[in-house]
Structure formats: C-alpha cells, structure tokens
C-alpha cells in the first residue's frame, strides 16, 4: 500500500512537471507520441524533482515524512489512447518503467502520461 501511495504521488508530479520538445521524430504515423518522446518526458520530470531537492511526502498511515528522488532506468511504451477533450487531440499513454527511489533497488512501476501538442508542435503535459 505504501508503494502504491508513493507511485500515485510520483504520477501526479510527473503530470504537473513534465514537458518535452517535439518534432516529427517524436510522433508516430498514427499521431501518437513515440516511446522516445515519453521517455524524454519522464527523464525531464524526474530530473526536475531531483534538482528541486526531491519531493517531500508524508506517509498517511504512519505520518512519517520522506524525501523522494526518483531515477528512471528503463521505460517501455505500453500504448496510447486518443482523447478529444477540446478542438485538439491529446493522448493518455501508459508506460512500464523501471525506477529507483533514493538510490534503492530498481522496481517496475506503471505510469500514465497525458500529452498534447502545443502551437509549435511540441509535446507538452496535459489534456
């Protein structure tokens, strides 16, 4: 349960902080972001968390305070779903990642990323 709570916190932070540059090589023929674009988004997000000194969280059950610094080791795109929530199409993508927290043992972690393209054609976080 503790790991699931930490995963949820990391997902929320990734969604808020993430952004990556876009180009034709970052988009598949069907319009979805490529695995490389998703990896870049996660790497930049985790780097931003570490640069900021980590992410402080409180474990609800115990009240214990932790400072988390995630590191991405591997990532694989599972799939993306197009979402038409406005005039522009955005994507919700699922990835399987191998991450470690605070230099601990790497473990498998599933994430969902929400992406859309901005006016410059760059992938950014959000719907």
Please tell me about this protein's structure:
The model is unreliable at 1-23 (pLDDT under 50). This protein has one domain (2-125). Helix 1 packs across helix 2. 26% of the residues lie in helices and 38% in strands. The chain is of the alpha+beta class and 127 residues long.
What is the global morphology? elongated
The beta-strand count equals 6
Biggest sheet features: 4 strands, antiparallel
What is the number of helical segments per DSSP (H or I, 4+ residues)?
2
Uncertain spans: 1-23
Give short descriptive properties of this protein.
127 residues; alpha+beta; four-stranded antiparallel sheet; two-stranded antiparallel ribbon; 2 helices; 26% helix; 38% strand; elongated
């Amino acid at each position: 349960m503790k790991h699931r709570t930490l995963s949820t916190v990391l997902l929320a932070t990734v969604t808020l902080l993430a952004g990556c540059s876009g180009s034709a090589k970052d988009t598949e023929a069907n319009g979805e972001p490529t695995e490389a674009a998703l990896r870049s988004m996660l790497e930049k997000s985790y780097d931003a968390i570490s640069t900021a000194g980590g992410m402080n969280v409180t474990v609800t059950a115990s009240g214990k305070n932790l400072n988390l610094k995630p590191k991405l080791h591997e990532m694989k795109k599972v799939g993306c779903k197009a979402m038409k929530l406005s005039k522009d199409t955005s994507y919700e993508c699922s990835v399987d990642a191998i991450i470690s927290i605070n230099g601990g043992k790497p473990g498998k972690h599933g994430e969902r990323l929400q992406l859309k393209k901005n006016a410059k054609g760059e992938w950014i976080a959000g719907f």
